């Protein structure tokens, strides 16, 4: 049941800290049979395949695997991958991400990869789903059933599993040890406690809603590992509030999207204070100079530096930059949730959408 929550989506947003803690506990307690275990040291490439929000989790993982574990990663939409039938590396592995484990395109992509003798690992939420049954090995997100059509806790739980895999890959490949050390003793604990803090910011998030009041379109910008979060923020907003929204890599602005900017266009900038921050700030100034109203989602330092450039600011807790996608996700989820509630849409059952896309 929804308990005291107005919608399943809000309940599921709030379940994220416990969902992630459970997922990580589950991963720590499994012992993988040697024959089944992926050895990242032996791979020369990892191919990630998924759809929708699960695809965005894969995109975050690409930044993590490449930077931390020095592993080449390609991420593809299942619907493209399955028909492109790309050549596969002899020393490659494939990773399929799916909440339901029944998404038709992802399942077909898995079958194609298996026919090419690839090692196929899956991250699923539903045990015994088709994708789980047909994979060489399965890692589960333990976030419980997700009822809301818009994926929330499944997404961050997928990130939790992927983060676990990245750490393992770094260890096996003897790579990125400094980065891993910089995460501190328990990055998992840091993520869970900072997520709690973001959930306490609901009132602050409601204060920025005037930004979307009369909007017919919105743009989300991010760079690096927050680029997928910009994509996810835009997808969430369009799914449940029906506002047309696009996510862009901030560096792409000049290559087209900036033509859309005028006084009526809200721009959400997802930019923690990291090595790319300065770059994003100059993008922020470019859109502001053209009249856009800007919402900056950042941490303490980022918000301080940009006070005078942004119309609205949501300050999130400061975490290690690698962990930023976890908490920025929660902020964009809440933003789209409250926008949808204000617009009076059917948050849990948005029009034209099904929870599980079992047909093409
Ligand atoms: O069950 P899956 O993770 O395979 O589903 C993939 C997409 O259909 C799903 O993430 C979809 O994009 C959600 N509605 C996003 O909120």
UniProtKB/TrEMBL annotation:
Give the taxonomic lineage as stored in the record: Bacteria, Pseudomonadati, Pseudomonadota, Gammaproteobacteria, Oceanospirillales
Summary of the function given for this chain in its UniProt record: Catalyzes the first step in hexosamine metabolism, converting fructose-6P into glucosamine-6P using glutamine as a nitrogen source.
Query: Its GO biological process terms?
Result: amino sugar biosynthetic process; carbohydrate metabolic process; fructose 6-phosphate metabolic process; protein N-linked glycosylation; UDP-N-acetylglucosamine metabolic process
Q: Name one GO molecular function term.
A: glutamine-fructose-6-phosphate transaminase (isomerizing) activity
The protein, known as: Glutamine--fructose-6-phosphate aminotransferase [isomerizing]
Reaction equations catalysed = D-fructose 6-phosphate + L-glutamine = D-glucosamine 6-phosphate + L-glutamate
Question: Which keywords accompany this UniProt record?
Answer: Aminotransferase, Cytoplasm, Glutamine amidotransferase, Repeat, Transferase
Primary localization: cytoplasm
Instruction: Give the active-site positions.
Output: 355 (for fru-6p isomerization activity)
Return the EC number.
2.6.1.16
Q: What is known about its subunit structure?
A: Homodimer.
GO terms for CC?
cytosol
Gene that this sequence comes from = glmS
Q: Where in the cell is it found?
A: Cytoplasm
Q: Determine the domain of life of the protein's source.
A: Bacteria
Q: Does the keyword Acyltransferase apply?
A: no
Natural source organism: Marinomonas mediterranea (strain ATCC 700492 / JCM 21426 / NBRC 103028 / MMB-1)
Q: Give start and end of each SIS domain.
A: 36-175, 208-350
């Amino acid at each position: 049941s929804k308990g005291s929550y107005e919608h399943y989506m809000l309940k599921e947003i709030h379940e994220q800290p416990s969902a992630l803690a459970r997922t990580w506990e589950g991963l720590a307690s499994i012992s993988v049979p040697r024959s089944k275990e992926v050895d990242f040291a032996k791979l020369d490439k990892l191919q990630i395949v998924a759809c929708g929000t699960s695809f965005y989790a894969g995109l975050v993982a690409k930044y993590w695997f490449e930077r931390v574990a020095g592993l080449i990663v390609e991420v593809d939409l299942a619907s493209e991958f399955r028909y492109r039938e790309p050549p596969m590396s002899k020393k490659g592995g494939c990773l399929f991400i799916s909440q339901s484990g029944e998404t038709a395109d992802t399942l077909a992509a898995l079958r194609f990869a298996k026919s090419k003798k690839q090692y196929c690992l899956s991250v699923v939420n539903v045990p015994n789903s088709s994708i789980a049954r047909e994979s060489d090995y399965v890692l589960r997100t333990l976030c419980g059933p997700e009822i809301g059509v818009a994926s929330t806790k499944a997404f961050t739980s997928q990130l939790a599993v992927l983060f676990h895999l990245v750490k393992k890959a770094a260890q096996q490949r003897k790579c990125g040890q400094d980065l891993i050390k910089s995460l501190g003793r328990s990055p998992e604990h840091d993520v869970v406690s900072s997520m709690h803090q973001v959930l306490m910011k609901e009132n602050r998030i409601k204060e920025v809603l005037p930004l979307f009041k009369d909007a017919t379109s919105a743009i989300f910008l991010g760079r690096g590992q927050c680029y997928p979060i910009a994509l996810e923020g835009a997808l969430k907003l369009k799914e449940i509030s029906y506002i047309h929204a696009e996510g862009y890599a901030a560096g792409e602005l000049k290559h087209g999207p900036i033509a859309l900017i005028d006084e009526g266009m809200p721009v959400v900038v997802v930019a923690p204070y990291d090595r790319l921050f300065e770059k994003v700030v100059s993008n922020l100034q470019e859109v502001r100079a053209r009249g856009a109203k800007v919402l900056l989602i950042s941490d303490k330092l980022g918000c301080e530096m940009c006070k005078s450039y942004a119309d609205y600011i949501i300050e999130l807790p400061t975490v290690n930059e690698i962990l930023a996608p976890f908490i920025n996700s929660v902020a964009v989820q809440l933003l789209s949730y409250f926008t949808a509630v204000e617009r009076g849409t059917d948050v849990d059952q948005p029009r034209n959408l099904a929870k599980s896309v079992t047909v093409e």
